[in-house]
Amino acid sequence: LPQARAGIISTVEVLKVMEAFVNEPNYTVWSDLSCNLGILATLLSHTDFYEDIQVFVRDVFSPIGERLGWDPKPGEGHLDALLRGLVLGKLGKAGHKATLEEARRRFKEHVEGKHILSADLRSPVYVTVLKHGDSSTLDTMLKLHKQADMQEEKNRIERVLGAISQPELIQKVLTFALSEEVRPQDTVSVIGGVAGGSKQGRKAAWKFVRDNWEELYNRYQGGFLISRLIKV
Hints:
Elements: H1 2-5, H2 11-19, H3 27-44, H4 50-68, H5 78-93, H6 97-111, H7 119-131, H8 135-147, H9 151-160, H10 167-177, H11 187-197, H12 199-211, H13 213-220, H14 224-231
């Protein structure tokens, strides 16, 4: 992919290579593919090809998603659980119909306390329902954040809130980032999630940082968090 971004080889050639990995069982390979496709989607988000890349993601990730399924299989290892979370999150965010429907069903049961989601499925399910959700979905997620006993769960929710798509809800997430509900050291994660969530999110996050620069700079005093914020 770096060669494609530098214009040395065509993006089409890169995508053809990616298609060849459709039967690959290795987590590290899929993690690399996912990261590179994420970069491509970001680069294409300002073009007419953005929806095409989502279709490509659905096509490439659906066979491995069907093989892994939603529930752990006897004897599978830690990397299989990681791979399942990665693949389902990628499919859900890209709008794969069956994945979206199942994520919504499991999210509802989780919220109602009927069937609590395992830790490795929470991020992919949260991302999926938020990406294709509304104000009610965001309100439910903020309620889960408030009710969470463990900081790990609060952080997990904070990292995915930026997946929400509607402009007014993106603003709500950014305002939440600076609220007392979020620890100062975790604010950057929320803003970063918005910046990485969508084209609209990137623009909104950059404006939010500029508008609140004095407060953010005073909060972090030129430490590593301010550099991380600028990078995202």
